[in-house]
Design brief:
4-stranded antiparallel sheet, alpha+beta
């Protein structure tokens, strides 16, 4: 699928002064793609140049180069008697435009304007930051063909959204796709010794962008081979292995999606009546299908409408008595050879359409035969999760060799995935949800980790329904997902099980840990809180093999301490379940540290947490004081979280706390270790118990029970904290202080709630560093809601923007298009959630991924390392807003900001940082 790129440079503004004699700049732009370079005319003596030429600069390239290579615009200052000076660059990945143009070429209705990017884009310099803006127009045109051996994935859409995106319905789920690439890091090449720091940083930035584009293309090719047209829950990471190179990894879930028809908003039918009619229509359909083993489902055929498929063939594919074909192994990445016979069932069920072999989608028949039955999505519709078995995890310690190869790295991850699949099967589960991969690298030692939630799933549920429109089923209680999938005596390990507090029929665990979000049908208390735990252990050996062996021996003890502390904190809050669990390992020179974070909730189906008890010797004089402090903190946390009252339900004993005593429990010297929260047999345990007795209050986690402020955009933030490394206590203080500091800095938004935050722990030299990425969501003030009569004031705040976005840069909104209020002019919302609360996604445009490298030799002048990092982060978020507006959106959902590295040489006054940022560009209305 060859294509054509057309670029036009219109103007620039707010350029820096490059000619000190006249305080002006002689600016021109070099436009480069691949090996072809064009130059604009020189605009003399102006800081706001205008290029009057209407010439389009054209590039004609093939499809693979379109997806891999970025478009580079270098802004230069012309000098007559010396070399031209570089001002900055604009590096544009064409993947967002290619996805939109491919949809238009395939006949899919795309957004207005086609594959065009137009607007003011900040010019970024790796040594000085942002240095003005360029007004550019970029167009991409594709020429469709039917090459069955094509190596592009232009027709596959990518979503960072951890669920089926709003406005789409899933017609088929094909399963897990992955890819990784190993390449040299330009920072460690021999030429880096003779080139300037700016040239080295730019080479590294462009190389990482190429790797990002290439790994996305390969994942898209695998998804297209499976017959999918989209990848949801897309995750991309970089592993910096020093001189061994850099590993670009990507995982996702291949699905077939179709856009839902946009309702006619000009009709006079109120929204409530329309939703009721849709609900009644679906209820009638459920009644007609009642009695059938599963709902009717459609298979994907080359991106065509599933409704146009042959009915007889659909009937045979969806029949429960007909065996389904086995998926092609996702690890078979060689596209030039015929798939292995053991990986593909060449039966009549496989359909050949347009030269491409399409495999049947994942369903109940072939789920057990999949090599990796993993799903990277974290949020699922009601009825999809049948039972939650628990969190499963696998880790491995590896030595990074000098000549890293993709095959060896892929084999490492394949081993862990196979082990994780075995763990899920031991829990009698068929799939792993919210699957994620992490890698921690320190010199020549790396720790690979995979984790997810083992569950029994129902692939026949409708991915377009919400809780209110779900098909009622009396035989499926709402608490079913909390029931364990195994018999009480048939579990893989000894577990404390109790009767379900809601239905009183099945068994539930005493504590639930899950990496996915809370299922919407599970009844829980309204308030949820963020919970963090940090554990650390010292390293006895640091050498290559000895260090790796010692690290492998330390990991089981580290995980045990982390798990024990996490359960103790969960009990102290009065909660019994932890969702969105994230666990990561950080390797330092003298210690290894683990951090776990998640959202703690109180489920009514699970038994109430018991009062905290400690076990100690009779000679401990402080035991009674610690026991009383723990009891007081337990009651205070329970009351603050609202867990001390009973939710209304059919049975009063569902979540009742009436059986608890009001007095402090007696100190038991010979109590069973499993019944106490801590055993005070070491000095560290005493300090941990005292830390648990400290009462900390943070902003609550956003749930559907909270009422958001209408028209108030979310506030995405990133905070980086550093402290001296002095054991696990430093990590605990840093984790608690980061949440308290974020709440203090966002106090002007009160009342507000936090989306589930993302933590990144690192151990540079003798310091500990913690990055927190989150989103604050303004809530309705209960004291003021009574006076507003249900209509809140529209909220607009643009004072945080570094660059004022012009009105012509934003998408024009027709006031007569619908009755919703558009976002304020110049406002681009950023959120880590999959949607903006209180708004409606009118259309989803594309996914966006950017990567930046920043270096400075004036760290102290910028306010220290913290000032340098936060100014760089502000510039990056401003550039992200400008890209979002230029692509036609006014919001970026599913925002991620990965902190790849942060180097600091205090004696050289030098700092270097590398950030990767991205999300889904959408257009919303309030």
């Amino acid at each position: 699928m060859p294509g054509k790129i057309k670029v036009k440079v219109l103007a620039g503004r707010n350029l820096p002064v490059m000619d000190r004699a006249s305080d002006t700049t002689d600016a021109f732009v070099e436009i480069k793609f691949g090996g072809v370079t064009h130059k604009t005319d020189v605009c003399r003596k102006s800081l706001n140049p205008h290029w009057n030429s209407t010439e389009w600069y054209r590039f004609e390239v093939d499809e693979s180069e379109l997806q891999d290579e970025p478009l580079q615009l270098r802004l230069m200052d012309h000098d007559t008697y010396s070399a031209n000076d570089a001002i900055g660059k604009v590096v544009i990945s064409l993947a967002p435009l290619l996805a939109r143009e491919a949809n238009n070429a395939n006949g899919t209705t795309g957004p207005p304007g086609g594959a065009v990017m137009s607007g003011w884009i900040p010019v970024f310099d790796t040594m000085h930051g942002t240095r003005g803006e360029l007004n550019i127009i970029v167009k991409v045109e594709l020429f469709s063909d039917f090459n069955k051996y094509k190596t592009s994935s232009c027709g596959v859409q990518f979503f960072h959204c951890p669920m089926i995106p709003p406005g789409y319905r899933a017609t088929a789920i094909h399963g897990f796709v992955e890819e990784l690439i190993v390449n040299d890091d330009p920072e460690y090449q021999w030429i880096d010794k003779i080139r300037t720091p700016r040239a080295s940083n730019e080479a590294r930035q462009v190389a990482f962008i190429k790797l990002s584009n290439q790994v996305q293309r390969l994942v898209g090719v695998k998804a297209a081979e499976l017959g999918a047209n989209a990848v949801v829950g897309y995750q991309q990471d970089f592993d910096l292995e020093g001189e061994a190179g850099v590993v670009a990894r990507a995982i996702g879930t291949a699905v077939n999606i179709t856009a839902l028809p946009i309702p006619n908003l000009h009709t006079n039918i109120p929204c409530t009546q329309q939703s009721e009619r849709e609900r009644d229509r679906y209820a009638d359909r459920c009644e007609r299908e009642k009695g059938s083993p599963r709902h009717a489902r459609h298979e994907s055929y080359g991106g065509k409408d599933p409704a146009s498929s042959v009915p007889a063939q659909n009937a045979s594919l969806n029949s429960s008595s007909t065996p389904m074909g086995i998926h092609r192994r996702s690890s078979d990445s060689d596209l030039s050879v015929t798939p292995k016979g053991s990986s593909l069932n060449a039966s009549a069920g496989n359909t050949v359409t347009g030269g491409a072999i399409l495999r049947p989608s994942m369903n109940s028949n072939n789920l057990d035969m999949l090599e990796y039955p993993f799903l990277t999505m974290t949020e699922y519709p009601p009825g999809f999760i049948v039972h939650i078995g628990g969190t499963v995890c696998a880790r491995s310690v590896k030595l990074v060799d000098g000549g890293g190869e993709s095959a060896s790295r892929a084999a490492w991850w394949a081993e862990l995935r196979t082990e994780l699949r075995a763990h899920a099967r031991a829990l009698r589960c068929t799939a792993v949800l919210a699957y994620s991969e992490r890698a921690a690298v320190r010199e020549d030692v790396c720790v690979l980790s995979v984790s997810g939630t083992a569950a029994v799933i129902n692939l026949d549920c409708d991915f377009t329904l919400d809780e209110t429109a779900a098909c009622p089923r009396d035989e499926e209680p709402e608490c079913r997902s909390a029931h364990v999938p195994y018999a009480p005596g048939a579990g893989p390990y000894r577990a404390e099980l109790a009767l379900c507090g809601s239905c009183r029929r099945a068994r539930v665990p005493s504590v639930m840990l899950a990496t996915c979000a809370k299922p919407s049908r599970l009844t829980a208390y309204a308030k949820a809180i963020t919970l963090t735990a940090v554990a650390a252990r010292g390293r006895r050996s640091v050498g290559s093999e000895a260090g790796a062996r010692d690290l492998s021996d330390q990991l089981p003890f580290l995980e045990y301490e982390l798990h024990k502390l996490l359960l103790a904190k969960l009990r102290m809050q009065g909660a019994n379940a932890l969702f969105s669990l994230q666990t990561q390992i950080a390797i330092g020179e003298r210690c290894v540290m683990a951090l776990a974070s998640g959202t703690a909730v109180r489920l009514t189906a699970l038994p109430a947490p018991t009062s905290p008890r400690i076990k100690t010797s009779e000679h401990d004089k402080n035991a009674l004081e610690i026991q009383k402090a723990l009891w007081d903190t337990f009651n205070t946390n329970k009351a603050a979280n609202g867990y001390d009252v009973c939710l209304p339900g059919p049975e009063p004993s569902a979540g009742s706390l009436e059986g608890e005593e009001d007095r402090v429990p007696a100190l038991e010297l010979s109590a069973d270790k499993d019944t106490c929260v801590l055993e005070l047999d070491e000095a560290e345990d005493v300090e941990t118990a005292k830390a648990l007795a400290i009462r900390r209050s943070h902003m609550p986690v956003y749930t559907s029970a909270l009422r958001t402020l209408s028209g108030a955009p979310p506030h995405a933030f990133m905070q980086v904290w550093r402290a001296r490394l002095c054991g696990a206590a430093a990590g605990e203080r840093l984790a608690a202080g980061s949440l308290a500091g974020a709440a203090y800095k966002l106090r002007r938004l009160a009342p507000a709630a936090l989306a589930p935050s993302v933590f990144h722990l690192d151990l540079p030299e003798d310091e500990i560093q913690l990055m927190v990425l989150g989103t604050a969501i303004p809530l309705v003030d209960p004291s003021k809601a009574e006076h507003t009569n249900g209509t809140e004031k529209q909220y607009a705040d643009t004072e945080d923007d570094i660059f004022e976005l012009d009105e012509e840069q934003l998408v024009k909104h027709d006031p007569g298009e619908d009755k919703h209020t558009p976002t304020p002019s110049g406002q681009v919302s950023l959120t880590t959630l999959s949607s903006v609360q209180g708004s409606k996604v009118s259309r989803r445009i594309c996914s966006l991924r950017l990567l930046f490298v920043r270096e400075t030799t004036a760290v102290r002048e910028l306010g220290g390392l913290s000032g340098f990092l936060h100014s760089f982060t502000s510039e990056v978020l401003a550039i992200v807003r400008a890209y979002t507006a230029a692509l036609g959106g006014n919001a970026l959902t599913s925002l991620y900001l990965a902190h790849l590295l942060l180097h600091h040489h205090a004696h050289k006054n030098q700092g270097q940082c590398l950030l990767s940022v991205g999300g889904d560009v959408v257009h919303i209305t309030y």
